[in-house]
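For reproducibility, we list the full input for the glycinamide ribonucleotide complex.
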Amino acid sequence: KQRVAVFASGTGSNFAAIADAIDQGSLDAEIALLVCDKPEAKAIEKANERQIPVFAFQPRTYPTKADYERDILQKLNDCKAEWLILAGYMRLIGSTLLDPFEGHIVNIHPSLLPAFPGKDAIGQALSTGVRVTGVTVHFVDEGMDTGKIIDQEAVRIREEDDRYSLQAAIQEIEHRLFPRTIQALIQAEKREEIKS
Ligand code: GAR
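The corresponding predicted structure, in tokenized form, follows.
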């Protein structure tokens, strides 16, 4: 089984969807660690309920980003994580983690990238007035939501939609799309290993 580390900063509904997909047998992986940059985040409770190990840290207690990423790297190596899954992790990944894991870091973003990168993608879509937005799963590089796109799904914005209803529609898609895409990546890598 491939060992994944999930990174989250918030509610952790995508983290829970990944854990549920594993329990149901549709995702052939194991969550080795939850990495969380907000010690009060709901995601941590969800990990505790499932007895998944957590590394919670406060970035502001470290002198630099490289310092806290070195701590994360140590924990990732200790638990032998092979994939980093960013599920609502609201920070850019620096070279301390990118260099050793490039090609094995995946993010989910609530828009059809390259439209609406960065924070509040749902609010950006609503205020721009587009009729279609969606969800993107992509590889992570040093940019802000700029890495190679792996999969996308569109959501139509209805006249009556507000931030809450649109977020609910987007998250319903995320919870299906993310575990499925991770499973496809893991399977593709397994096939490569057999070939080589
Ligand atoms: C998700 O909708 C994810 O797409 C978004 O944060 C939410 C986290 O929800 N990510 C970004 O905006 C990244 N720029 P969750 O904590 O319930 O999984």
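Residues 157 and 165 are 10 Å apart (CA to CA). The mean pLDDT is 97. Both points were considered when choosing residues for closer inspection.
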